[in-house]
Amino acid sequence: MNKQIRIILPIAVAVIVWFLPVPDGLTPNAMRFLGIFLGVILALILEPLPNSAVGLIGCTLAGALKLVPMPDGKAATLGSSLGWTLSGFVDSTVWLIFVAYMFALGYEKTGLGKRVALMLIKKLGGKALGLGFATALADLCLAPFIPSNTARSAGSVYPVVKNIPPMYGSLPDNEPRKIGAYLMWICIATTSVTSSMFFTGLAPNLLALSLIGKVPGVDPASVVITWMDWFWCMLPVGVILFILVPVLTYVIYPPTQKVFPETPKWAATELEKLGAVTFKEWQMAGMALIALLLWIFGAKYFNATMVALIVLCLMIILDVISWEDVISNKSAWNTLTWFATLVAMAGGLARVGFLKWLGALCAGYLSGYGIFIIMFGLLALFYFSHYFFASLTAHTTAIMPVLLATGAAVPGLDIRVLGMMLAGSLGIMGILTPYGTGPSPVYYNTGYIERKTFWLFGSLYGFIFFAVYAVFAMFWFPKML
Question: Can you tell me where the transmembrane regions are (predicted)?
Fold first, then answer.
């Protein structure tokens, strides 16, 4: 599809919805805002422009046209429209995502991420199953601090792991099953699991939780989910899936070679090249530990974003990263703009009354079903609809507000539990397709795994992940929240 068509289609959708008859219960401005919102979502999928630019254009257009009323329902003014347009930039979750990108930069700049991966491979890499667990553990060690699984898996783990298969003559066009295919699949399946295990393991996790407080009629203070709330909810299912990935892959997709005596030696040589652990690496490890301890034990005293900002300031003061590193990190600023505008757009759906209207409409169709069935159905719909999205962020922004509004309209349904159920599934659903999450195309395009196998395993692991996750989401989460 050429760029002109990718530009025209989102505009056409926005214009068509704009001029549709206004249903009872909605205002003309609500329909107009919906048209812009759907156009933004389609543009995020088709990518005629960078995603952050798409979000900014959508926000600016809706704000300039004064489509979003003030919080008390009064007509928008010049000041309130500007305030809404920029509202996402003062959202604490958006800044937590931004600072977490600085953590990733610290791991990369100091070399600590690479050292961790090499140390694990040196210890566990002599046999195929151990090598599988070493690559998985490398991702796990970085997951609490790096919210981009692309930066974590494709940027830190893959550059180390990719060197191993060629050592044994395992190449995409020559004996890929010897070890290459096995390792590549473990990498992508593991990062999907670790992305769900931690609140800060995937940027859309944070975006999803911020949307819970924007559900019409819900007090934001009553639905706060902390780092530790997330951790305890996800701990049992995360551990099960994390262990399952290397073991299951070893059983159903085993490498043809089982012993790799040269791998620990290679890792040891690479570690020697790195030299002794540097002072900067110790500092980075200390900063990560401080952040983790404050997220776990300091929730009564510090907001999670404040913790991240404190640690960022310490990293700058101690020169772990420089201010030049911060201002020149295009990915971080791009993500901040993207998420800030999407938070505002999702909040706009509530402000114009669309979510309340749609939630009541959907809840009417669900009347007569038990809460258990409704929550399971909403979770399944959210999870498997990811087949139609190439972006977890676009998926979250498009689908989650609607499902949350639907749940909020069902009497007796705990919206906090439903929100955690939906948000916690975001990482694991990335396994479904070769485009389901950021690192997927990296491993898909290595050529080690055949196209049909990648699709088949994506569906197989996706269904297994969902089945295990759903059990804990339905029975464990309510006890933890």
Answer: 7-23, 29-46, 82-107, 128-146, 182-209, 230-253, 282-299, 306-323, 335-354, 366-384, 390-410, 417-435, 455-477
Same domain? 197 vs 258: yes
Residue 368 clears pLDDT 90, i.e. is over it: no
The tally of domains found in the chain comes to: 2
Distance between CA 414 and CA 24 in Å, rounded? Answer: 28
Identify the domain containing residue 2 by its residue range.
Answer: 1-85
Domain boundary among 303, 330, 357: 330
Q: Which of 274, 299, 330 delimits the end of a domain?
A: 330
My answer on whether 182 and 309 are in the same domain is: yes
Let me know: does 203 contact 335? Beta carbons within 8 Å: yes
Please write the tens of the pLDDT for every residue from 146-177: 878 888 888 788 888 888 898 888 899 889 99
| Predicted TM-score (pTM) above 0.90 | no
